Amino acid sequence: MKEYLKKALQSTLTTFPLVPDDFDVELSVPANPDHGDLATNCPMKLARHMRRAPHLIANEIVDAFLKNEYDPAFVESVTVAGGGFINFKCSNTFLFKELALCLQDQDRYGRSDAGVGQRAMVEFVSANPTGPLTVGHGRNAVLGDTVANLLEWVGYEVTREYYFNDAGRQMRVLGASVRSRYEQVLAEANHPLASDPRVIKHRLRYQTKQLMGADHTPITVAKSFPEDGYLGDYITAIARDIVSTHGPSLLDNKTTDVFEDVAKSTIFSDIRSTLKRLGITMNIYFNEKKLYDNGAVTATLNALRKKNMIYEKDGASWFKTSHLGKSSDTVLVKGTGEPTYRLPDIAYHIDKMERGYDLLVNIFGADHIDTYPDILRGLDVLKYDTDRIHVMIYQFVTLTRGGEEIKMSTRMANFVTLDELLEEATPDVTRYFFAMRSPQKHLEFDLNLALEASDKNPVFYLQYAHARICSMLTKASELGLEADHSPESLTLLVHDTEITLIKQIISLPETVAQCAQSCEPHRLTAYLRGLAEAFTSFYHSCRILGEQPQLAAARMALSEATAITLRNGLKILGISAPTRM
RNA sequence: GCGCCCGUAGCUCAGUUGGAUAGAGCGUCUGCCUCCGGAGCAGAAGGCCAGGGGUUCAAAUCCUCUCGGGCGUACCA
Fold this sequence. Notes:
The protein is of the alpha/beta class and about 575 residues long.
């Protein structure tokens, strides 16, 4: 409809003098439905070029349009509004045709082809394996997976990738934390191994100290516990596992390698299973180590050096970001010879580019806000097309419990994990909750509310509408009724609520396309809410069972189309569409 | 101090590339169950879109300043 009108108007305007060649006709959906289904503001845009009042231009355009381009299969009426808008009302014929398309396409309805033949990669979560995923990672995971789904629906071949770093200081601290907890576990007086001579010896020299937890309560740890160690209970759990597999045999080990390895693999498998609970499966787990092994990190530094963008100062290598719009330069290699994370990050993005993706989407938390521009600068200098990169920065989740804020960090003992959230809220509710708001807004996640919200949550409203349709259609077919998808049948749908519902249904493809294009899943949740509302409104004013058979058959077809649309929308959001609740 | 994000109904938030009378949900108040699922429907109240200035035929939207909140601002990851 939109394309048809745009083309028709564009062609109408070619007959007008004084219209700029590159003039673009804009069509928008009016806020007020009384103004029609689509409107254009081009008379106002043209007023300056043509030096005439908008409403006069509007009248001329309408006359020419009616004479040359008007097609009653699409347009029912064209009117000029006071200000100079031209309003178009869709013909019902057009609506029924689109509705028939929905019934025909079924599971595929809503797909389009903007990305066909192109490959996209969405990089998300990308949490290092130092602890379980938190509620904050949940937002990242849901946004990333939903964006990936959206891109698939507009035709992209999508790869979901998780980038991680399991080496370096961070992991050593992790290993040391586990080791220290291991010592602490074995020092417990009532431990089953307490009579083992090695454990007795260990207890004689064992000492403790106190650290402050996130909630300002002191936590007792072994003296060997690192000052910046990871205090979470999951560390102790890993330590207990090691005790049960290795007993006290590791007490005299000088290194923390074993502890690090066990911690790493335990944590990673937990992360995978947490993601799985949300219905998320990654295609590729990309280890940063690979970039060192294949020389990409060094190559990147050399390439930048060749562009004369690197200099040495105080033993470190600096990237001349001050030449690229930043107020200061940035260290890429520290005096110790170890690169900062920015260098491998640039190398990583080059790697992604080289793998030939047409679109690279990155989902970053607000803490990356200052770092990704450096990556783009690096790529820019090396002549990579940064237009292919779409960075989504989402703001943090503020977690509250009974109005009190809880700070989230994997280093502190007191944080809420995504798993803990999923114990209480279903994956469906969790996914909807994280997807329903604009990414750049802070998300206040009140745990108390989330836990008790099940009956208020909008996701239930959508699922309920779907379940109700299914149940009603089942009942109808038991009564021997059958939906009629034929064009003649659909023309019986003329009630206000029916027309409103049809209009909502047939805008799914465009809505999905817009959400994909802007990487904004939350618009889809708003759309689905409107769809469910339109349906329940129809459902309450139009009966199906007990109506004349032809009308009932048409209304069943409309209900079916609603169910298809709801189901497909929910599928993109990764939410189930139950037939019964 | 500097950079980025945010400020819209009592609360949580939508608001397409600037468009017509700024919209939902929750909460509050009125109605509606002999009837396909009341986890519902219909309606009401509730707003100087943080504030000032500017651009435009047109600003919640763009520019600028002020105020308020968040996240960064490490040779930590």
